[in-house]
Specification:
alpha+beta, Rossmann fold, 461 residues, elongated, 8-stranded mixed sheet, 5-stranded mixed sheet, BirA Bifunctional Protein, domain 2, binds histidyl-adenosine monophosphate
Length: 461
Amino acid sequence: MTDSKKAPARPALKAVRGTRDLLPDQTRLWNHVETTARNLFARYGFGEIRTPVLEVTELFARGVGEETDIVSKEMFTWEDRTRAAGEGARGPESKAQSLTLRPENTAGVVRAYIEHQMANSGALRKLYYIGPQFRRERPQRGRYRQFWQIGAEVIGPPSSGSESPLRDAEILEMLASFLDDLGVRGWRLELNSVGSSQDRVRYNEVLRAALQPIRSRLCADCQRRAETNPLRVLDCKVPEDQVLIGALPRIADHISADSQAHFDAVRAALEACGVPYHLNPRLVRGLDYYTRTTFEFTVTTGLGTQNALLGGGRYDGLSEMLGGPRSPGIGFAIGEDRLILTLQAQQEEDAKGSGAAPRELLDAYIAPLTPAQNPAALSLARELRSASLRIEVGDGSFKLRKSFEIADGLARHIVLLGEDEANSEIYTVKAFANGEQTRIPRAKLAEALRGLQSSSTNFVQ
Ligand code: HAM
């Protein structure tokens, strides 16, 4: 076919706006963060839960709240026509059901807690999750339409001690340890209590009355919230509204003696553990299920305006809102994308003046000298990999010089495999760090390649 007859080139397709591919260079850090979380959470008695990314829309309407930004503006929701169970492919379609890609995981976890009757054993449940969430937000640095959360929930019937302030402090102490283990610098814990659900009802009325005379001077969103959900006004980020909002009655002055005592006990336990915190009386959070303790961790490096690294709090009434038994709970979700951005920004700061970040190398590159040695090369690779070494294998079609070029920068050693080596099972091994070339018999090869593994030659600059 001549050029003029070629079909027109098809445009290359791209990832959906607000979603991202994570490539191996990035996933190394993601995996490190996730492994650190899994190991730490296990030490506190948490087990992993995986819930579906699809849930019925009503779960979030009831759990997170119809009036929240998440439910009113940001959910990916559609009417799904599913055939009723037992009907064949040609059967009539059942009624449409509204489904939503989960915008957060707490409602799903509590739904699963109820569905699997986890309250029945009477025990406290400690559950953690790592997975994608979906919100139709305007994408920017640190804000995506598909993003990952690492979260945990502690929930149980009141007799399990699930209401105890010790649980709040334990969660916060675990988060402080997690961020410290990862080496996150300059984190700041902001803490508040929004009182019990009865306290909130009363405070909402106080706020509603206080908002009446100033309503017309607030932004359009706040004018609406002043009517529907006055507490949300405190969360407003519009600069012009801040002076007026700052002068509104404070929730701390309207919570009951019980809620105050609970909050004091959380603070005392945090102080005993040496976890620093800052009181923030305006921290009400963007979800309606919260009662009593609410918190956020912020950072100064890497996130710009989206500086909330994680958020959480208590939700003593959520199980009942979702049709379950009374089961108070507390939990958090870390924005994993934001945590990674923070760590990367820190690494960049650290690398300034010390050159590029080190790259991790494989243990060896096996270079068959001709395609005839490919089977022997693959067999050797299999043996070394099963000895837990990290191996890449060439395919015998490259000239020796090209094999060296590929291997250098990819692996710490090159293992040459020609006909002689295949027969004698004694290999020529070159270590790139010092240029040394040695001949090593097969039985000693794994040990020799590993021998240098822990030395500083593990990384190239
Ligand atoms: P949230 O504050 O809505 O809480 O989200 C928690 C964290 O997820 C935020 O602090 C932020 O780091 C991250 N995040 C939220 N939206 C985005 C986005 N569009 N792009 C990137 N990261 C984002 C919850 O989701 C609650 N379920 C937390 C919780 C658990 N409360 C009790 N248990």
